[in-house]
Write a structure and sequence with these properties.
The protein is of the alpha/beta class. The protein has helices at residues 27-39, 55-67, 95-104, 115-118, 137-140, 144-159, 171-183, 213-218, 221-234, 240-252; strands at 22-24, 44-49, 70-75, 109-111, 163-167, 189-193, 257-265, 281-288, 291-298. It has 2 domains: 15-193, 3-Layer(aba) Sandwich (Rossmann fold), CATH 3.40.50; 206-298, Pantoate-beta-alanine ligase, C-terminal domain (Pantoate--beta-alanine Ligase, Chain: A,domain 2, 2-Layer Sandwich).
Length: 299
């Protein structure tokens, strides 16, 4: 992973006086929009999103705004990362609202391409990060991280950012992107932004809106289970299976929850551990009704 060559620029934006956002739909237009600031030495920050922006995304954009001279937010629901039985069609698309959030956060350019713009031909070339993508979500969503890595690599080539911002809630995605950048010598610095949570601990996600009132009330059990695992590790437990059992017991206490996985992994290559001897991530995915929720914490 390469460092940014030029110094970072800091720029504060008042919500009430934030200027309009330049919304572009084509690769040509986004490159043209960035040509002048790039030639003048501005640090370019990219926040890749699929839209349906929420406070978690706002934290990403805010981080980019503080550290970069130009902020680009991409809004693109990437079909390559959805499986045949997943929720691509019903994934929320709220462009007008998203652009307003971007404006309030001081975004300079919103890149909102169509699928045909991103994939003018049926793709025959893909980016795939093995090993890091094998467990956790990769086990249950085959092809997902290949789609993620491919679209992020395309965005890096299109925007050519100095820094790119990703949330720690999608911890495995973050690890995949970091490894891709390191392995392929991509000249971008990856910035991780902490998970933003509701007051009851639920990680903020665009999928939370699919929960009904009973499901929403049950959803914080996921974070409570992760916190129980943290508690066990900090009290000295080093047997990962015993930590998992304690956390899974919390999840099983909620009848609306169906567990997909709960694992303790190393934070770099995302491999499950049997013994805890250093920094770890505790990661879980559960189904509540028809909604899949993921979360993770670091120890």
């Amino acid at each position: 992973m390469s460092a940014v060559a030029q110094p970072r620029e800091k720029r504060e934006i008042s919500i009430d006086t934030a200027p309009p956002v330049n919304v572009v739909q084509t690769v040509k237009d986004v490159r043209e929009a960035l040509a002048l600031p790039r030639s003048s030495g501005s640090v370019i920050g990219l926040v890749p999103t699929m839209g349906a922006l929420h406070p978690g995304h706002e934290a990403l954009i805010g981080g980019a705004r503080r550290e970069c001279g130009i902020v680009v937010v991409s809004i693109f629901v990437n079909p390559l990362q959805f499986g045949p039985n997943e929720d691509y069609a019903r994934y929320p698309r709220t462009l007008e609202k998203d652009v307003e959030i971007c404006r309030r956060q001081g975004t300079d350019v919103v890149f909102n391409p169509s699928p045909d713009e991103m994939y003018p031909l049926p793709p025959l070339t893909f980016a795939e990060v093995t090993r890091v993508s094998e467990h956790l979500c990769g086990k249950f969503r085959p092809g997902h991280f290949r789609g993620v890595a491919t679209v992020v690599l395309k965005l890096f080539n299109i925007v050519r950012p100095d820094r790119a911002y990703f949330g720690e809630k999608d911890m495995q995605q973050l690890a995949v992107i970091r490894r891709m950048v390191a392995d392929l010598n991509i000249p971008v610095e990856i910035a991780a932004v902490p998970t933003v949570r509701e007051p009851d601990g639920l990680a903020i996600s665009s999928r939370n809106q699919h929960l009904n009132s009973a499901e929403r009330k049950a959803a914080p059990v996921l974070y409570r289970a992760l916190e129980e695992a943290v508690k066990r590790i900090r009290s000295g437990e080093r047997d990962a299976s015993k930590v998992r059992e304690a956390a899974i017991a919390i999840l099983e206490s909620e009848p609306l929850v169906r567990i997909e996985y709960l694992e303790i992994v190393d934070p770099t290559e995302i491999q499950p551990l049997s013994t805890i001897s250093g920094p770890v991530r505790i990661a879980a995915a559960v189904w509540i009704g028809g909604t899949r929720l993921i979360d993770n914490v670091a120890v």
